């Protein structure tokens, strides 16, 4: 499997490249392949271990794209980046099995599924057959309904149990346990308080034995805490969350501001 150097020995860094017009903080910036390649090269120079390409916005309220529409955005960018960075680990942020299969055939290495297999369970078969790493994320509903589903008895216990159920489905579909990476899904069907509770309780997730990926970058809960309405100005709040992730032995963080967070990881890793 394609894994970053130092995997499970340090907290690695996944860089976000959104090939979308409507993502919450960078929509429209990387729609054309040349702009996306420029961003990818900059992220790699600044310390990214994995590039995460997403052609469908998963923010609350986003419009659902068909697999065909998603592929039309994704594949030209994937080909452009792969042709220039032949040894770079490229992750694809998708929940469609058709998109996952085509992307893997075009040179992608990971699948990052925000639905954890709920929206298209055939994605488990694609991942099982490829043997690639698979980020299994906790979420509920879809972009339109997730906010109405943010109700838990104990968010840490409930999210962990729902991840375990999704994991069982994935394993029963032929995915091997060492392919799985857990993501507790900050911001997906969760309030600010839920997100903070999950961050306080990260040890409950890392103790299950799966590498953990956490994606706090520029999210609304960071803005709520720091009283910063502009997502582009939430880098310091994001960095604080990343420090907590290092302390909790999280395997990877997914961020937009790669240079700043790469420096944060270096400093935090020297402290914990």
Explain what this protein looks like in three dimensions.
- The chain is an alpha/beta fold and 272 residues long.
- The protein has one domain: Alpha-Beta Barrel (TIM Barrel), CATH 3.20.20.20.
- It is built from ten helices and eight strands.
- An eight-stranded parallel β-sheet has the order 6-5-4-3-2-1-8-7.
- Helix 1 packs across helix 2 (67-84), helix 2 (67-84) runs parallel beside helix 3 (97-105) and helix 3 (97-105) packs parallel to helix 4.
- It starts with 11 loop residues before the first strand and ends with a helix.
- The relative contact order is 0.14.
Quantity of strands, as a count? 8
Class inferred from helices and paired strands? alpha/beta
Radius of gyration: 17 Å
Q: What composes the largest sheet?
A: 8 strands, parallel
Distance between the termini: 28 Å
The CATH homologous superfamily corresponds to Dihydropteroate synthase-like
CATH fold-level label: TIM Barrel
Task: Give the amount of beta strand, in percent.
Answer: 5-15%
Order of helices and strands: EHEHEHEHEHEHHEHHEH
Secondary-structure arrangement, i.e. CATH architecture? Alpha-Beta Barrel
Q: What does the average pLDDT come to?
A: 94
**Helical run tally:** 10
- Total separate domains: 1
CATH class group: Alpha Beta
Percent range of helical residues: 40-55%
């Amino acid at each position: 499997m394609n894994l970053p150097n130092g995997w499970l020995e340090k907290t690695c860094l996944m860089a976000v490249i959104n090939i979308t017009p409507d993502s919450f903080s960078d929509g429209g910036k990387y729609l054309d392949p040349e702009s996306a390649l420029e961003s990818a090269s900059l992220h790699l120079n600044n310390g990214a271990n994995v590039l995460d390409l997403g052609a469908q916005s998963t923010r609350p309220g986003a419009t659902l794209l068909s697999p065909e529409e998603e592929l039309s955005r994704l594949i030209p960018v994937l080909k452009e980046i792969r042709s220039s960075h032949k040894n770079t680990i490229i992750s694809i942020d998708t929940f469609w099995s058709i998109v996952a299969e085509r992307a893997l055939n075009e040179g992608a290495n990971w699948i990052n599924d925000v639905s954890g297999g709920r929206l298209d369970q055939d994605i488990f078969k694609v991942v099982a057959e490829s043997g690639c790493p698979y980020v299994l994320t906790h979420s509920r509903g879809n972009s339109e309904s997730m906010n109405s589903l943010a109700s838990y008895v104990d968010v840490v216990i409930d999210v962990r149990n729902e991840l375990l159920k999704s994991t069982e489905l994935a394993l029963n579909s032929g995915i091997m346990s060492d392919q799985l990476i857990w993501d507790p899904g900050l911001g997906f069907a969760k309030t600010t308080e839920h997100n903070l509770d999950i961050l306080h309780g990260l040890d409950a997730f890392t103790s299950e034995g799966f590498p953990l990926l956490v994606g706090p970058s520029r999210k609304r809960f960071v803005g709520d805490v720091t009283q910063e309405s502009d997502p582009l100005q939430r880098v310091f709040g994001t960095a604080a969350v990343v420090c907590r992730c290092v302390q909790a032995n999280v395997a990877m963080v997914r961020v937009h501001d790669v240079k700043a967070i790469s420096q944060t990881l270096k400093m935090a890793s020297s402290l914990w």
